[in-house]
């Protein structure tokens, strides 16, 4: 996470919220699904996003608010329920 903050977003996206500046790119669309499912890690593993990742949080919000992303986004509850089934199956 800190690498993304400092080496990627901190150096490549000086002009806007996305990886390469003001325009959404394939890199943004490739990484975002992992962040969309972050709620699963928070819920099951109690992980939290480290503090001080301001550019990452700005990127995350810009991605979530982008019309192309929000049109197909799933809720946190969706991922928790889906992955919860996997967790339960592994326990049995």
Question: Strand count, sense and closure of the main sheet?
Answer: none
Q: What Rg, in angstroms, do the CA atoms define?
A: 15 Å
CATH architectural group? Up-down Bundle
The CATH class is identified as Mainly Alpha
Whole-number mean pLDDT = 89
Number of extended strands: 0
Task: Flag low-confidence runs.
Answer: none
Order of helices and strands: HHHHHH
- Tally of helical runs: 6
Distance between the termini: 33 Å
The helix content is 55-70%
Helices and strands in order:
Blueprint: H1 2-12, H2 26-36, H3 38-45, H4 54-65, H5 67-70, H6 76-91
Helix pairs in contact: 1-4, 3-6
Describe the 3D structure:
The protein has helices at residues 2-12, 26-36, 38-45, 54-65, 67-70, 76-91. The protein is mainly alpha-helical and 92 residues long. It has one domain: Glutathione S-transferase Yfyf (Class Pi), Chain A, domain 2 (Up-down Bundle), CATH 1.20.1050.10. The mean pLDDT is 89.
Provide a brief overview of the structure:
The chain has 92 residues and is mostly helical. The chain is built from six helices and no strands.
Provide keyphrases for this structure.
Glutathione S-transferase Yfyf (Class Pi), Chain A, domain 2; 92 residues; mainly alpha
């Amino acid at each position: 996470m800190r690498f993304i903050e400092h080496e990627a977003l901190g150096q490549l996206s000086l002009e806007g919220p996305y990886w390469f500046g003001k325009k959404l790119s394939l890199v943004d669309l490739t990484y975002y699904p992992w962040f969309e499912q972050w709620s699963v890690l928070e819920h099951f593993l109690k992980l939290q996003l480290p503090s001080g990742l301001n550019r990452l949080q700005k990127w995350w919000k810009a991605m979530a608010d982008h019309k192309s992303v929000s049109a197909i986004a799933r809720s946190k509850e969706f991922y928790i329920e889906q992955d919860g089934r996997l967790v339960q199956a592994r326990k049995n």
